[in-house]
Amino acid sequence: MTKIIDLSVKEKIYKSKKVQISILNDFRLEVATGEKIAIVGESGAGKSSLLNIIGLLDRNYFGEYTLFGSPTDQLHTNQLAQWRNQRIGFVLQESALINSLTIEDNIKLPFLYASPDKKGVGEIEDFDTVVSAIEIRHILKKKPLECSGGEKARAVFARGIIMKPQLILADEPTASLDVENRERIVTLLFNMNKEFNTTIITVTHDLEIANRHDRVIHLERSK
Ligand SMILES: Nc1ncnc2c1ncn2[C@@H]1O[C@H](COP(=O)(O)OP(=O)(O)OP(=O)(O)O)[C@@H](O)[C@H]1O
């Protein structure tokens, strides 16, 4: 088994003027390359915080983390940026679309930031495949403010996976979707997993979806 994630968090502390909370106490996570993991747990348990740590968006915690075989505390800024853009696909609750751009340009944004050797590689094919699979062709020329919540959620999802990342982090990717679109997203995710051995970590409150992953991790709220 090749490990893609080896994370050991002693604790993550959020401090504000009056309160301090400590979450993810002695939390350990090992994930094999190509695994599909669901993370469930009550509100406030730390699911989104955990995804932020896994995705290298938050490095302010006590613990140790090896990702793609490299200790993350030794990563340089440009390497971090490259991993976040190309190796990790984010479908996060706060991944806002840029309102001044069309849905098509929003989805293609990761190509703009790609390193020179990756620029244009598979761009047209990948874009077409994703757009067809989640049926968003009709909104490509629209701006985000002209789209419904569910359409925006699908666009955020498309942007997160367009670079065919090795690791996809999805925070409630199906929360605002009807059954049909929910199924399209899950099918696309799982097909990517099958075809490219993409590792998938999904935070969800939907136990039916959670149980379709290889492993379900229950996060407990800290006492
Ligand atoms: N930036 C922040 N500053 C202070 N506290 C925070 C911050 N972000 C999260 N928290 C707190 O940390 C705890 C975990 O939050 P988190 O969003 O990770 O939980 P969650 O399990 O994803 O919840 P939900 O299911 O409601 O999205 C909560 O008590 C939350 O209030």
Which ligands accompany this protein?
adenosine-5'-triphosphate
Order of helices and strands: EEEEHEEHEHHHEHEHE
Instruction: State the separation between the terminal residues, measured CA to CA.
Output: 34 Å
Radius of gyration: 17 Å
DSSP, total strands:
10
**Main beta sheet:** 5 strands, antiparallel
Tell me, what's the shape?
Answer: globular
Beta-strand content estimate: 25-35%
Portion in helices: 25-40%
| CATH class group | Alpha Beta
**CATH topology value:** Rossmann fold
Q: Count the helices. How many?
A: 7
Arithmetic mean pLDDT:
90
Ranges where pLDDT stays below 50 over 5 or more residues in a row are: none
Q: Which architecture does the CATH hierarchy give at level 2? A: 3-Layer(aba) Sandwich
- Tally of discrete structural domains: 1
Structural class: alpha/beta
List the topology elements.
Elements lengths: L2 E13 L4 E4 L3 E6 L3 E6 L5 H8 L7 E6 L2 E2 L5 H11 E4 L11 H10 L10 H11 L15 H13 L5 E5 L7 H18 L2 E5 L3 H4 L4 E5 L4
Parallel strand pairs: 4-9, 4-10, 7-8, 8-9
Antiparallel strand pairs: 1-2, 1-3, 1-5, 5-6
Adenosine-5'-triphosphate (ATP) binds next to β2 and α1.
